[in-house]
Design brief:
Chain lengths: ~230, ~280
Amino acid sequence: MENLNERNQNMLSVEGSILEAKLERRSFLQYAGAGAAIVALTAAGCKKDRVVVPTGVTLDFKDDFGVLNYAYALEQLEAAFYIKVASAPPSGFSTAERNYFNDIQYHEVAHREFFKNALGTAAIGGLEVDFSSINFSDRASVLAAAKAFEDLGVAAYNGAGVRLKTDAYIVIAGQIVSVEARHAAYVRDLISNGSFANAEVVDANGLDKAFTPDVVLGAASKYIKTKINVINL
Amino acid sequence: MNIVNILEEIEKVDGEIYERLNPRRAAMKDFFNMGKKITLAAMPLALGSVFKKAYGQTTPSQISDVLNFALTLEYLEYHFYNHAVVAAPGLIPAGAPLGAITTIRDHELAHVNLLKGALGAAARAPLAYSDFDFTGKGTFPDVYSNYLTFLKVATAFEDTGVRAYKGQATVLKGNAVLTTALQIHSVEARHASHLRQMLAANGATGLKPWISLGAGGASNDTGIAAVDPIYVRENTSMQAGINIVGINGNSAITAAIAAESFDEALTKAEVLAIASLFIK
């Protein structure tokens, strides 16, 4: 029920701005999203799952909130993936692997919740994920997906850093990306020891990848059901 | 040339990629076109001239200060690994361990060359192996004869590198140079993750690929007291004013998870103090 309370607060704050007759495009989208969220919530009842927003979310890159919401979206995706893995690990996982995937799960939840709180009422809603391409009972399938998520996360933060204007957020992005890179290296080594920074991800100048949001969201789209609208990129 | 390939790929989706990387679009465009014409070996130098075009006649001193600071650390890392690979036979077991250290050595050399090229005439004087004392003035006397000691120092260097780049990110705010620095930074984090696993496999039981809480909530999780300064503040649980422990009712987010989830930065002064132990 926590979510419901927060949603109601968001709803009230959005309605407040409408009463002030400041119906900009952005606040309209927020309003539409919040309204849809309420409908979805009614349907979902008191389920602990995150709220489904069938009308999609909008990432507006005109300011740091857009970049933070972009990171929030990616962390939601990663957290959802690892929560599913940790709740029922593949039988092929060793005890050590179960423990570390459990850790990674909580790292991603910590990142997700950090962005949610940092964004406050500017936060996008919960994303609905689509993991139908992943076989969660198969170690190799889970590791391949984890590698894809972590490498993509690293490239996303590397590419997004230059967009940030607020010092504190630049620092935060740096603090998170290195943890994602540690995950990426760990997962890669599980797949093939020594592949932590191979030529697939590190070029001849010793540089990791850096992708723009279009590229990242394109790659992530197969795992996300919710429509993500990107503006002012 | 991967960076050119990446730019090409991105340009297909984002026609204005060069503008995004840097408002001085023409400079980035030049770089892109240049990449097609020149050889890989010439690339770092070419990158240097791009910085000049992007930022005027010379790179601003704030930027070159950061790049020279990074260059010093990359020299340190490169010579540390290179000596182990070429001049300490039998130190690193053949096979996967030697392969990993060689890969890391090669990356550090690439970083040295990239930064040297970017700085051009503003680059600091080159550092040779003989300029360093990797025993840390006697702190690690068997660094090149005891594999475990070598791995400890390597882990410490990589975790330092990760923290050092992070500390300079705000100086590079909004610059294409920041992207390059971040691309080096995440490679250092990949190295750190692997070295921690190597260290764990050689006696440091339980050491995680990510920096966790030390015993009793200490900031240093390696159990090596001599490297305490490298891990200061890694036990932090407040991030940008938000308490991570138990955030939003998630009781599983413990102090250890909070410490692991966010790597911390070191200031330039802190890094230089650490590095000075290894520079003659």
